[in-house]
């Protein structure tokens, strides 16, 4: 995956990542209905003439907004020192996206102590990253440069709404605008300086900033893409499982990336088989009835980064908030698969 990330230059990120006007334009989209009120109208997405328009949901979420969000420039400056901004996406829930995000972050940080890594938990209503990364009961503190992320290692910081909830069972019952506002604060107000650095006010020198997103292609995804339009997105890693019920939603996620002009780094097929902890033999639990991720990637001309089998040690590492690669049998198929992907 590191090679795929390095192949996407900063110039390509800027060219491929759309500006906010790609979603909130100053003209009527070419595929709009005949009586479109215009994407900047207060009635955008809500008027009778909007019924059945393919842009209706996007226009409704942005109705009345004129021009780009002024905070985009602030976010661009805030993240100026971040080398790689990676989205981890999945069309279907429960495919192990947050698990992969956490283990990717652990591995990147462990591989080089001088490498600075950050994780942003964009899954506002289901923030599992604090538990998976072993920092569930920590708190966010304000510093001179903004909110301070929780550092699980000297070179690995985490930001999540999970740190702000009164307890682990508290539900976040928010509509889109409030969720989008929280995501904006994560991008605009967090000081990603290392745990040992002082409040200099300078942009962070992060090597990787990884965004763990919820399933689907909705508010959170649109917000991240729009707000990072100035800073640029390195690309997206899309996580799936082998069976068609997951792949059919992943194809929608791929379509979203292409329409939003987010580069696709590649696809990871998770839970590609069950590994017996005794003999290391594998069984197909989720049968790839349509050829699995390998065939889908070949059909859509997308890199397959690798296939990771099920292993009880992965679930155990997530429950205890530890790095799977630090605690597993290094010769296990799952450990080899993770190292090959990363």
Describe the fold and architecture.
- The chain contains 13 helices and eleven strands.
- With 342 residues, it is an alpha/beta fold.
- The strands form two sheets. Strands 1, 2, 5, 6, 7, 8, 9, 10 and 11 form a nine-stranded mixed β-sheet that branches. It has a two-stranded antiparallel sheet with strand order 3-4.
- A hairpin with a 2-residue loop joins β5 and β6.
- The longest helix is centred in the last third of the chain and has 17 residues, at 244-260.
- The chain is globular.
- The model is unreliable at 17-27 (pLDDT under 50).
Cα(first) to Cα(last) distance is 5 Å
What gyration radius follows from the Cα positions, in whole Å?
20 Å
* Uncertain segments: 17-27
Q: Summarize the helix and strand pattern as letters.
A: HHHHEHEHEEEEHEHEHEEHEHHH
Number of strands: 11
Global structural class: alpha/beta
Broad shape? globular
Q: So how many helices?
A: 13
Q: Classify the beta-strand content into a percent band.
A: 15-25%
Sheet with the most strands, sense and barrel status:
9 strands, mixed
The helix content is 25-40%
Mean pLDDT, to the nearest integer, reads 86
